[in-house]
Amino acid sequence: MSVVDKVKNMVSGEKGRKVAQLDSVSQTVSKDDRITTDFGVKQPTADEWLRVSRDDKTGPMLLEDSYARERIHRFDHERIPERVVHARGAGAFGNFRLFESAEDVTFAPVLTDTSRETPVFVRFSTVQGSRGSADTVRDVRGFAVKFYTQEGNWDIVGNNIPVFFIQDAIKFPDVVHAVKPEPHNEVPQAQSAHNNFWDFVYMHEEATHMYMWTMSDRAIPRSYRMMQGFGVNTFTLINKNGERHFVKFHFTPELGVHSFVWDEALKLAGQDPDFHRKDLWEAIENGAYPKWKFGIQTIPESKEHDFDFDILDATKMWPEDIIPVRYIGELELNRNVDEYFPQTEQVAFCTAHLPPGIGVSDDPLLQGRSFSYFDTQLSRLGVNWQELPINKPVCPVMNFNRDGQGRHQITKGTVNYWPNRFEARPPATLQEGAYLDPPQSVQGIKARTKSAKFRDHYNQAQLFYNSLSPPEKSHVAAAFAFELDHCEDTIVYERMSQRLADIDLELAQNVAEMVGGTKPTKATRNNHGKRAKNLSQTEVQPNKPTIASRRVAIIIADGFDKVTYEAITTTLKASGALPFTIAPRRSEIFPAGVEKMPRNGVQPDHHLEGMRSTMFDAIFVPGGAGSLETLRKSGRAIHWVREAFGHLKAIGATGEAVQLLSQAFALSGVKLSNDNKVVESYGVVTIADVAPDSLKGTVTIAKEGTGFLQKFWYQIAQHKNFDRESDGLSSQVAY
Ligand code: HEM
């Protein structure tokens, strides 16, 4: 799309239309405004309730003060029920662009018209916790996308994990009750690490595949921007010849999939419970707009039964080796919300919101969901929630639905029914864009049962586990060990230890040993040994390594080496990363060789106590004898370095600062530079003698890079150095 077309689209296209619609109900607070009642009457004070009083006595307040009563009354009713699940979330606006038409499988213009830019609103969420819980807990993440298409709203209400705990919507209350805080004491918050959850999933075998995913690194994402989105359920697409395909929707992040290590996630939950929310906000404010490729996996209707799993079963994914993802579009988030409550909180998604050309399938989980969302939104938002600006389509809404609490729309005329003598608002024809339910023959017996393939719960659980990299497998074992350690009931951890032998014997033995269960001696089910593509997140990585939007802490103290500091800061910014200067105090820090006079130094962004290493992706320490002297005597500074090492982050140091690293983790296995050669060892990049040209030149991020910057940037782009963990180095450091 040309720049001119882009501008036109901003103003009058679909994208501009949603912005204009929201702007028409927005206001900006200004000092020219004067405070009024809800009914527009200006008020002389917002501080004093009308009362009977004298200078020497404060008397009773008067009920007559309707303005004061209005203020308290409005405040008393500010809260609405939080979502029963996915209560904690963060949202942003953006747009969806199609680069390849999918007209062979659908006639939905949002998936066929490559000239369109469709405005979207996306809400990411955790599932278990309440609205005020922490972002970084072990949990599934919601990934809900509302496309405001010209043919009506389309919602993909997905997750960052492609499968689910249950096959049939009737079980949803049970799985949610089991995972939420226990009913007697409302403990624990936002965690599956308790008796009830593990008791339930043991008894309910269809959850097996899903809990293997939630025990993996997928459930502790580094950022909403670095996770995949999956529609999970099976939908259908219909083309203009009336042919149907089954479809799964995918969003794949441009930055690749990255996660925390568990200790980091645990600490962040206390140190910065809003970490993900802030990360999304900060990236968008800095112009580092998060992007995802949008893809579809399709299966023609005639091939529905060609697979060894049921393609309508939400506890199964469609292996990409046999059903490749076809990437046809791109989702970008580029605008933060103006106000959280009317936008992120009041947005209401529903799996039944589908434009013509896209349909549901007989997936028994999907069919239940399509009832549940409408229903729950009635108690959360009231009957006219579809009129709230964030939920309103950009195309006209014309029907005979009327009245109800909070109705905004005023429809003129005498007619509120169809058919009517004026032939007003008749149903649309297909040519006019009516929704198409293609005729399908349905047969069977009426019974509470599903097809036989729904009864297999282990093949894909093994497939997932087999496909993980060795570090990912060890994280799964550690996650089970943590979770089951929190279950006090012997029967719960004992049974779960045995159940894992149905998936992998070694995993079961390791977990049993850690949690005090009986160590199984033989596998209770044969492992088929198969693996599949892109289940390990190490395979879902960008084509070219990047450090864009990575937070890098640069630690300095008085007497630091300014030349190196400036070279690193400037080059990080040029590469799209976000450098933050951290020092023992937030007032000015002076480099070596300058007088300690105001404005001779640099103003740090934070001090060492205010932020922790957990909030950054990498750390760098420039040299300077004075700086080293201070930092090496600071337990907190040493802890920063140790913790970054323990959390497998890239660490860079130059000049005297190399000595700080050897003091912090004193490990013979990690090689450090002691001359003018750049040394990279386990993601630690050092150079002891910095020459004027050591930190110059353009940085191409590649494994074979030789200079300090090239090597350090490459390590940051890797996100974590897992060799440090597998070779037993990180576990030797106290952090
Ligand atoms: C494939 C499995 C499922 C996925 C991927 C999924 C995804 C989501 C997401 C992303 C949200 C948050 C929407 C938002 O940001 O506002 C959500 C909320 C919710 N989900 Fe699901 N869900 C699944 C299964 C179910 C089932 C089976 C039910 C019930 C039968 C259900 C009921 C709900 C309810 C009641 C909410 C709260 C909605 C609101 O208050 O607006 N979900 N789900």
TrEMBL record:
Gene Ontology CC annotation, any one: cytosol
SMART domains per UniProt: Catalase
Cofactor field: heme
GO biological process terms held by the UniProt record: hydrogen peroxide catabolic process; response to oxidative stress
Annotated positions binding heme: 373
Domain Catalase core per the UniProt entry, residue ranges: 36-426
InterPro entries: Catalase, Catalase_AS, Catalase_clade2, Catalase_clade2_helical, Catalase_core, Catalase_haem_BS, Catalase_immune_responsive, Catalase_large_C
Enzymatic reactions: 2 H2O2 = O2 + 2 H2O
Broad enzyme group: oxidoreductase
SUPFAM superfamilies xref list: Class I glutamine amidotransferase-like (SSF52317), Heme-dependent catalase-like (SSF56634)
Keyword vocabulary terms for this entry: Heme, Hydrogen peroxide, Iron, Metal-binding, Oxidoreductase, Peroxidase
Any GO molecular function: metal ion binding
EC number assigned by the record: 1.11.1.6
Active site: 86, 159
Family label: Belongs to the catalase family.
Role of this protein: Occurs in almost all aerobically respiring organisms and serves to protect cells from the toxic effects of hydrogen peroxide.
Name of the protein in its database record: Catalase
